[in-house]
Amino acid sequence: MDVTLHTPDTIYSPRHVPSWLFLAGAAGAVNGVGFLMCEQFVTHVTGTATRLGLEWPVVGLVGEYAAVVLSFVAGAAASVVAIQARAARGQRPRWATPLVSVAALLTGVALAGHAGAFGRFGGSVAADPPPVALLSVLAFAMGLQNAAVASTTGLAVRTTHLTGPATDLGIHLGTALVGTEAVRRAALRGAALRGGKVAAFVVGAAVAVPLARNFGFLALLAPAALVLAAAALSFTTNWSPSDFPFRLEPGRARPSAPGSRHR
């Protein structure tokens, strides 16, 4: 089933590139706030799975780490179902639904945490209630986000981790060194996007420090706002795909909205 929203042209358009950076920055902030809350990451599935293996003799810890990993996977699955279920019925997909859900989850965690539902911010990992509940909700949200972007860009863009983008960055740079002029230009464009996502993730984590220090759980409202901005900019199909911030010449047909062929 072809329900891809973005093509290579729209992925690199001036309108949509900021969205990928916003989402990478949001993931960096969520990961940073998660670590500052309870000294564990939520988008780093590789690290969490490694901890799961290292702690296998401790049944309780294994269960907690497994819950976080499975929550990320469940979020990814839910994202695809939310988009493809309507397409399977011949209806227009609601592309923004997963990202709006991410923003709602982050906002809910921020408000619940501020009200004391997750204990003291920055408390012990052994606090009551256990951090697995908090980490699982955040991991689910990040799975939603990553799959929403990956599944609608033909798996070309991912925003919640850096291993893939860093690998792609190296591949593009290597290609630029040995390719023809046209290949070099395309490779450098790809390298710029991947490098930008890495930088945005780092900046998001860095900004999380003063936000968490001053606002505690409410720091999660900042990545929620970034996710909503990306959803409005790149997952609202009433706008044409690539003309922002440019205007079409008079008399020239306006391009159809992405995804219109799937109505």
From TrEMBL:
Membrane-spanning ranges: 20-42, 62-83, 95-113, 133-157, 215-235
Protein's organism: Gemmata massiliana
InterPro entries annotated for this entry? DUF1275
Ordered alphabetically, the record's keywords are:
Membrane, Transmembrane, Transmembrane helix
Q: Which Pfam families match?
A: DUF1275
Top-level taxon of origin:
Bacteria
Q: What is this protein called?
A: DUF1275 domain-containing protein
Q: Does the keyword Transmembrane helix apply?
A: yes
